[in-house]
């Protein structure tokens, strides 16, 4: 039996960039043909990018996708190309069309429309009702789209129609549990059907969602034949042996460190880089406080964009410690970024002086602390405007969960790389990044003193975060149970946490929804991110 040679296009296809996406598809079809591929596959909704959201409500957008799809048929002589696109025929479908010999041979419609987590497919699409199979170089191939493989029926339909190989095109976002879940599903489908599976996934950042690629080859017996690295753009070559129902990879890129810290760090870097570049910003700006959150954000920004595109600003007051000043200066020098020190003491005092008559004799409290943060926000936004560099917010998920952040202060920013990263994970990532630097002989990317110091907002004398919050290991454990796992307060207490602490943490989470609604977007990397995924009402009587 003849073998089928495949090319899987694990690349980024940007939302809305229809003409550019089509041009990339055309180039990759040519590469695949010259490499002897019988089939080249592209990710879910290649032409529109994923998720296109309300662009799908615009007839002109759908027409542009349709026009580019038809134009691509001219590139498919001597090769078959499976291209994802929105398909409008009165109703709109999430589709993948097989282009071959200058025409659209067949179009598959996504049958299982996810409507959970970050997915909103049912808002835009109608479901398909059958699995499409085609013959390619003597092999019966079933064509599935993303969620279709997570349900048993579409794959079973393909097998019943004689499919030997399933080609699954995806836009499956990454989170810290996705690899295990994804592989378990693919292994189950292969064992149920006896079909081998070529699983192709999109790669790249799109607003709050990050796609990891990490495409897979699964043999008909459920064994994993190959894993592509995460967050790497590549044309992946493979061969399918129909007699053995096995797939083999040809010179796939090899992942280095595939630990959870390495993959998470890569997700944050990719999400940040793509957000900045796709929105056309020349560089970024951030407040560098001498604390661990801004230090990790700076390291991420430099890894994402290069030092020449990053500006860091230290804005001290009387409460800023020498450790913070030294740590920020040392890191900025080490990483080679543009660095400025702008004292806000005088500006802050002018605000206090102007406001004192209207404060009505009330004593100092958190108002004055927040005013320091807001003074910094004004400064940073002015620098962002003047130099055209996007401001990064540096807060983490623990802080955003309980509202330990100042509206129009440290929450200022257009993108927040650590928004979905708990504080305890911030420490893990910082130590991991330093370990990688040490192995490369580079020295610390984040000053060790910054990692080891007690965290502090430095808005008053001798302040630490733990004056206002439980220890972060305890706080994050409670938050993870309440947010990711949706556990009740009673369930959390049963697991050994103090009832008063649990009640206090949960109250803060629910109370601060209004702040989170005004926060910058950031890359989703957990199974329950604030933003498009976790949507709680601001006004609610439930406690």
From TrEMBL:
GO terms for biological process: NAD+ biosynthetic process. The active site is at residues 44, 110, 146. It catalyses: deamido-NAD(+) + L-glutamine + ATP + H2O = L-glutamate + AMP + diphosphate + NAD(+) + H(+). InterPro entries: C-N_Hydrolase, C-N_Hydrolase_sf, Gln-dep_NAD_synthase, NAD/GMP_synthase, NAD_synthase, Nitrilase/CN_hydratase_CS, Rossmann-like_a/b/a_fold. Residues 4-242 form the CN hydrolase domain. One of its GO terms (cellular component) is cytoplasm. This is Glutamine-dependent NAD(+) synthetase. It comes from Rhodanobacter glycinis. The lineage of its organism: Bacteria, Pseudomonadati, Pseudomonadota, Gammaproteobacteria, Lysobacterales. The gene is nadE.
